[in-house]
Amino acid sequence: MSKSMHVAIVGGGIGGLSAAVALIHRGIRVSVYEQSSELREVGAGIFIYPNSLRQLERIGLGDALARVGARVGAGSEYYRMDGSVVGKILTTDSSGWNGMYGMHRADFLDALAKVIPPDAIHTGHKCIGFSQDETGAQLTFENGTVAQADVVIGADGINSVLQKYVVEPSAPEYAGFRAYRGLIDADKVPEWRREAHQVWMGDGKHFMVFPVRRGEMLNYVGFVPTTSETVESWSAVGDRDELAASFDGWDPRVTHLLSKVETCFWWGLYDRKPLSQWVNGRLTLLGDAAHPMLPHLGQGANQAIEDGTALAVLLEGCAEGGAIEAALKRYAALRQPRTAMVQAEARKNGLRYDSKYADLGQRDREIANSATLRKSLYDYDIEKAASQFLQASPASA
Ligand SMILES: Cc1cc2nc3c(=O)[nH]c(=O)nc-3n(C[C@H](O)[C@H](O)[C@H](O)COP(=O)(O)OP(=O)(O)OC[C@H]3O[C@@H](n4cnc5c(N)ncnc54)[C@H](O)[C@@H]3O)c2cc1C
User: Fold this and answer.
1) Is the CB of residue 257 less than 8 Å from the CB of residue 198?
2) pTM here?
3) Ligand 1 midpoint to CA 288 (Å)
4) Containing H/E element for 273?
5) Contacts of 244 (CB under 8 A, 6+ apart)
6) Residue 302 C-alpha to ligand 1 middle, in angstroms?
7) If you measure from the C-alpha of residue 46 to the centroid of ligand 1, how many angstroms do you get, rounded to a whole number?
8) Which are the contacts of 143, defined by CB distance < 8 A and separation ≥ 6?
9) pLDDT, tens digit, for every residue of 359-376?
10) CA–CA dist 8, 51 (Å, integer)
11) Residues within 6 Å of ligand 1 by CB
12) Which atom of ligand 1 is nearest to the CA of 161?
């Protein structure tokens, strides 16, 4: 019965493709509509944590991710800006499972795309409109085409076009920070700890490094305050000298690595307060379209992957409109509290990393205790939570 349901996903980023893979795994037919002429991600790294890797492995992506990911473990630490150690970074869940990878974003997107039938992915489709009635939903695209579906998932990012069909539009909030980032060949800094996630904190900014692509490359990010609002963009070319100057006088490991950087990119950092509503009939939102968050816990994409798993569990077996709408309402009820908590915690963690504390001893104590929060993020099993939620509210909307 579930095979007859057709789900249209608008957006072929990590959120949209991971939702497609989770739905396909449960026998649900999907079509992905992406505005770009090809699926692409930016040349930077992303952390995949146990809460999402657990789900990706269950649906058969374990080997593909192991081939391109970099394991992160030994030597992962928080430092003050002078390089003195504040504490260790937790790199396992509570069971001791080291389920985390540093990934090149393009490698990750490619691993997801490979398990989606090519004819289910429609690039060059910029969605410009949505409508629905009791028989189904309709999407219109800038190229003049139209698509029908039983369910529409807006996975179209922080500037989502579909969001306005669900909730009163509101502008994303600027955090006052620019993130400079890029990749560097690990061979250029042979002395670097190959498996470590390392974070330097201080003076209103922070810097971090972790490995990607089997450890062959290092991903670095420098978070620097700006007085002027910068465009939220995945492709603005940054200024490598400006980046290096921002961390002048920090731990020599940081300044040495920055001296090897040739090019970098920058992004303005934005998030949103939690949306009051995620669903309108057959339409729902996922990933940054639903809950953009600051990157200070590395959970934006991980939460999108949880969203997709929840939708797959809750939509499986739904055929007609009433059941679909009830499933989407359950999805929102399950996901809104958790993503709102992560959005808030990401903001708080940014204050720690940027040392916005009168008493730095307090910051150090909170950082040293951060394993408790990380465990609560990593131990969460969304597939189990969604199944339990379904059993607890089988007929309610
Ligand atoms: C500096 C930084 C570091 C980060 N590090 C991490 C990390 O380590 N771990 C982590 O989990 N998260 C991290 N994040 C967050 C993460 O990148 C995002 O949460 C995630 O990429 C969101 O995925 P998405 O698919 O929801 O949105 P997007 O990646 O924005 O994808 C949206 C897609 O929709 C397409 N689209 C948009 N509009 C339309 C339309 N009208 N029609 C059709 N297609 C459309 C876009 O072209 C795009 O392909 C970080 C973010 C930043 C800024």
Assistant:
1) no
2) 0.96
3) 6
4) none
5) 255, 258, 259, 261
6) 11
7) 11
8) 124, 125, 126
9) 889 999 999 888 999 999
10) 25
11) 10-16, 33-36, 46-47, 125-127, 155-157, 161, 179, 181, 221, 267, 287-289, 295, 298-302, 304
12) 41
Atom of ligand 1 nearest to the CA of 14: 25
% of the chain residues with pLDDT over 90: 84
Q: Are 130 and 33 in contact (CB under 8 A)?
A: no
Structure tokens, 154: 């807006």
Query: Residue 354, Cβ neighbours under 10 Å: how many?
Result: 22
356 in Cβ contact with 183 (< 8 Å): no
CA of 147 to the centre of ligand 1 (A): 23
Residue 87 β-bridge partners: 78
Reply yes or no on whether the pLDDT at 266 is more than 90: no
Our CA dihedral for 88, 50, 276, 162, rounded to 10 degrees, sits at: 120
Atom of ligand 1 nearest to the CA of 234: 53
- In DSSP notation, 220-235 reads EEEEEE-SS-----S-
| Residue having the nearest C-alpha atom to atom 51 of ligand 1 | 295
Residue 62 amino acid letter: G
